[in-house]
Amino acid sequence: MKSYDVIIIGGGVVGCMTARALSRYRLDVLLIEKESDIGMGASSANSAIIHAGHDPIPGTLKAEMNRLGNPMWDQLSRDLDIPFKRTGAYVVAVGPEEQAALEGLLQRGRENRVECEIISGEEMRRREPKVNPEVSGALYTPTAGLVDTFAACLAPLENAVMNGVEVMTETEFQGFIRSGRQITGIHTNRGDIACRWVINAAGVHSDEVMHLAGEREDFHITPRKGEYLILDGAEFKLDNILFPVPSAVSKGILVLGSTHGNVVVGPNSVADPDKEDTAVTPAGLEEVWSGARKLVPELNPRAVIAVFAGLRATGNAPTRAPGVTYSHDFIIEIAQEVDGLINLAGIESPGLTSAPAIAERVVELLRGAGETMQEKPDWNPIRRARPRFSQLSRQEQAELVRRDPRYGRVVCRCETVTEGEIVAEIHAPVPARTYDAIKRRTWTGTGRCQGAFDLPRVVDILSRELGIPVTEVTKKGRGSAFLVRPTKEVEA
Questions:
Q1: How far apart are CA 213 and CA 318, in angstroms?
Q2: 479 inside domain
Q3: Nearest-CA neighbor of 65 among 82, 79, 75, 51?
Q4: 427 carries an active-site annotation
Q5: Domain check: are 6 and 72 in the same one?
């Protein structure tokens, strides 16, 4: 049984950022993920916003991590080639009651040390002509931005792998190995693995991991489902981030642009005890559409090309903020009931924004627990993304095709994704081994035809490059094969 210094449970953005932060030190680190690929949970099914930080209650861990994490994204995006842009964001008020609520949000933002201001309805209409013409004013936060959510998982983990971290997908945590109070390893579906520390970054399942250690048994995660619609960027353009005035349980239904050019609307917020339920519902999508049209009345349903849902890891952890009754703050702490466990739990919004700061907090916790945290002299913080053919100039495209003719064969016409790009992702440091893994990395299958043109070609490429029959190529891992047998094969 191989032994590691640290095992990270969970390949979402928090786990991946933590892997990169720890790769800087002389530690043997393993990240395990139960799915066939990283980033398959809430980390790639959210609004893709780097929040300015005006919304969390002052004094909470959410507020602190949001404040620390937001400015880290500029350097991260440069070092790791993560698509990111600071667009600013607007909380849009319609009517006098919502207008009055902006003053409270402004005060909270200032308490959280966030740059923000209230602008008039006239100014809001000037900045975003598509906004509801009845807008009475808006809270503007210039440090908000948009990020490619999957790249925010993939890029730091690839950089971690370049610096010595190991990754095991399709590896499910099943329990702890202990000697008295000390954790000495974990049980998985692929065997036992020894370690000195476990980092619990298991998202909606982080409470279950804690309970298996006898830790915080009164802490429970009840996911909140959020449903979204994606609009074709060729049909409808919008670059801003538009929030409604928030409710007690949600930031509300948004209308926003994206780093890929599509427009996204959503999410709603529905408590859902099923931690695997990411199905959309007619009622939920109608709620989303109705809420979005309050912000942008001219939205046209004919522009909708896809729908999806994600789950927020909403927990019942009390806040540490004095005098505040608040039941779902982040948990970022060393366990009390066992030795060798760090829990990162209840990481809902603004978890994406906070992820790099949470990762640095893990380093501080380990150092505070007596780890020497000796830096590697050859640690490399830079990771370069593979070429994206559609984003290159004609001259750059021609040179790329000259070097590798596979870049001249277009597989996805809607998004202009080439065979060369797909092959490069299959053989990357964190390889793509399923159709959906290719889709998340290259954006193939996300355009108007939603994969109708590219699917058989991508299946053939995966079969060839992985050396497996086409009947073993899957959409998203075990139990999702596309093909059973040749069409004309006669059964005995």
A1: 20
A2: no
A3: 51
A4: no
A5: yes
Give the relative orientation of helices 13-22 and 351-368 as an angle to the nearest 10 degrees.
40
Active-site residue among 51, 54, 205, 328? 51
Q: Which domain range does residue 238 map to?
A: 87-144+222-312
Q: Which residue reads 């978890």 in tokens?
A: 351
Mean pLDDT calculated for residue range 301-312: 92
The answer to the question of residue 484 being in a domain is: no
pLDDT over 70 at 322, yes or no:
no
Write down the residue that tokens 């992985």 correspond to.
466
What are the DSSP calls for 175-216, one per residue? EEEEETTEEEEEEETTEEEEEEEEEE--GGGHHHHHHHTT--
pLDDT tens string 399-414: 999 999 999 999 998 8
What tokens were used for 43?
């980390």
The verdict on 442 and 361 lying in the same domain is: no
Among 312, 328, 346, where does a domain finish? 312
395 or 315: which carries more pLDDT confidence?
Answer: 395
- pLDDT score of 250: 64
**Are 75 and 15 found together in one domain?**
yes
CB 5 within 8 A of CB 184: no
User: Quick check: is 98 in a domain?
Assistant: yes
- Structurally, the chain folds into a number of domains equal to 3
Rg for the chain (alpha carbons), in Å?
23
CA-wise closest residue to 191 among 166, 173, 208, 209: 173
pLDDT grade for 281, boundaries at 50, 70 and 90 = very high
Q: Is residue 374 part of a domain?
A: yes
